[in-house]
Amino acid sequence: MQSTIWTEKYRPENFSDLRGQNEIVKRVKAFVEQKNTPHLLFAGPAGTGKTSLALVIAKKLFGNGWRENLLELNASDERGIDIIRHKVKDFARTRAIGDVPFKIIYLDECDALTREAQQALRRTMENYTSTCRFILSANYSSKIIDPIQSRCAVFRFKPLDKSEIEKIAEKIAKSEKIKISKDAIGALIEISEGDCRKMENILQSCAAISKDITKDTIFSIASFAEPKEIDSVLKLALDNKFIEARNKLLNIMLNYGLSGLDIIKQIQKEAINLDIDNRKKMQIIEKCGEIEFRLTEGSDEFIQLEALLSQIALTGKNA
């Protein structure tokens, strides 16, 4: 088993190492070169480089003393107003160590901060601009209050392109001396959905089992059913072979260890690719949304999935 987590081992050290966010990196790099960075808000999905970019900024601004001048907090763990009033405020009010203009406070997942904590943070950002800059990271910028957003330069991250995920996977495979097939890379792209961290964790788990990574290994480790298997279930249901579709779906769930919500998401994705008219696709996807809601409310997943297959079978029967 590898001794280092690959998400840390392959974390970018320079702006040139950051993948998939070229426009954002270019603008942030200009701020760093002028040594006059404003408060920043990084918003976007998980695993797209928000934390990596924040650490690269600190390393480029502060050099070897970056750890002394950076306070990194995960707001989902420490989300109360007391953290802002004491820990953050105490760090912000003191001058930076060394010949640097300011310190940096990096608040990860700050959309988890309570509204009261965000109000306290707003005042801290305002009062200590001369000695400290804030970098805020959020999956949902809409959960950040407007006064904080207006004080920040907002950068919106996007999921990494397929080509970028492929390049990163190939680079890791070469460095770790593992063999990965094209089909396996395609499976990684399918499962990660632009989340680089997720891709690296799946790849490391597979590498612990075998140095020759195949598509089947990827799907097995990730607890993700092969798209062609989900497609076959949908086609059986559309052909009014309800019992066969039900049995196959249960086998897929047991073999891959999937929950009801996992399988619903995959069914919704594969329904788009079915060779049926758009109206029937819309009916199936509408039913997926209804069943997904019922599952999140605590309904029995097997009954709900049977109800979904029944609806798909009726949709096919009414062709």
Describe this structure in words.
The chain is an alpha/beta fold and 319 residues long. It has helices spanning 6-9, 22-34, 50-62, 81-93, 115-127, 146-150, 162-176, 182-192, 196-209, 215-222, 227-238, 242-256, 260-271, 278-296, 301-317; strands spanning 40-43, 70-74, 103-108, 132-138, 153-156, 179-180, 212-213. The strands form two sheets. Strands 2-3-4-1-5 form a five-stranded parallel sheet. The protein has a two-stranded parallel ribbon with strand order 6-7. Helix 11 (227-238) runs antiparallel to helix 12 (242-256) and helix 11 (227-238) packs across helix 15. The protein is elongated and about 70 Å long. 33% of the residues are buried.
Summarize the structure in short.
With 319 residues, the protein is an alpha/beta fold.
Termini separation (Å)?
A: 53 Å
Please state roughly what percent of the residues sit in beta strands, choosing from under 5%, 5-15%, 15-25%, 25-35%, 35-45% or over 45%. 5-15%
Q: State Rg.
A: 24 Å
Q: Can you tell me the CATH architecture of the largest domain?
A: 3-Layer(aba) Sandwich
Q: Helicity, in percent?
A: 55-70%
Q: Give me the number of helical elements.
A: 15
The overall number of domains is 3
Name the shape in a single word. elongated
